């Protein structure tokens, strides 16, 4: 049965001058009153259902309560009404952010065309059930390695800028600022305010984390809240927030301030601080402590350097007290005598070697001079060349009329051959009787 077929359900009679919605057309439209009555009669058949969700708004007017419930696993929401007659039967401490289950019945108001649910019963979700779901998620995330110490990023020694996510004008914000500035007066903050409970907690914290993680000047991010009961801290165990913190590139410090039943954010953060004050003390160093440490290191360095200098002076004095350094002249004199003797021996040996080399050089020079053609020319011999450069060794090589060049000891002269002469004529030539036989042979050449 469709919504428009539900007009047959007993109830307030629709206007008589209007067709049923299922029979409507452009020529015969139905009336709004009849349409609303049809919808009301249809939803009246649904009966009462139990739903689970989180209270996102809670307004009391004239004894009645007008509120909204949000699905804890999605963004789906419904409007609810708690009449004054039912209000006395529900817990008096219900407030925004509470996780509840409610018995609701669909109700459609014909005059206003307003759809909502009327509450007949409502109670808190058992904390044990919530904690059980929380522990199952904790086990899953641990199995995925999101809690491993190896993946936690170290905090910088002195951050340039600290990103802070906390409630606006909250005590947590004041504690972090005050204690950080007491330790390091020049510390700088970039604070992004976010709701720390209720339905806006997770989306606003996620948005703030995204902004600060993308800022290159921010060196560490602190998520702070001044404690609270486990019910109000459920937003800091939301799986979306936990995974976003694990994926952040900037180190994240969890400072929720709740020792028992700590949220999952404490497990996945790079550092867990017990309180916002503790977070401030662990994020920035103490100026006084650092100055004391520098003074201590300076004193230690001065002591070590003084000890080293004193040790080196003692070593030097010990070396200077040795005889060889106290009176080095006798050692130098002995060494000087040895050097003088070695130098004299070297000069004598070198002199003898030079004399022997000189004599050998003279012998070689005499042998070379004896074998040299210039020595032969100096004794009165000559070398005859024809014009074609041939040296005349046989008289037949220079027939009559041959132009010859005669090279003697000092210079050359030109001659013309008259031909070969008889040996008898040679024997009668002046000076031929005193020439050696082989020298006569050279003369003939």
From TrEMBL:
Record key words, sorted: Cytoplasm, Exonuclease, Hydrolase, Nuclease
OB-fold nucleic acid binding domain ranges (all copies): 31-122
EC number: 3.1.11.6
Main location: cytoplasm
Lineage top rank: taxon: Bacteria
Any one cellular-component term (Gene Ontology): cytoplasm
This protein's record includes keyword tRNA processing: no
InterPro entries: Exonuc_VII_L, Exonuc_VII_lsu_C, OB-fold_nuc-bd_dom
Enzyme class (EC, first level): hydrolase
Locations listed in the record: Cytoplasm
Coiled-coil residues: none
GO biological process: DNA catabolic process
Region (Disordered): 1-25, 421-445
Example of a GO MF term: exodeoxyribonuclease VII activity
Domain Exonuclease VII large subunit C-terminal, first and last residues per copy: 146-362
Reaction(s) catalysed (UniProt annotation): Exonucleolytic cleavage in either 5'- to 3'- or 3'- to 5'-direction to yield nucleoside 5'-phosphates
Family that this chain belongs to: Belongs to the XseA family.
Subunit and interaction comment: Heterooligomer composed of large and small subunits.
NCBIfam families: xseA
Function: Bidirectionally degrades single-stranded DNA into large acid-insoluble oligonucleotides, which are then degraded further into small acid-soluble oligonucleotides.
UniProt name for this protein: Exodeoxyribonuclease 7 large subunit
Record organism: Microbacterium azadirachtae
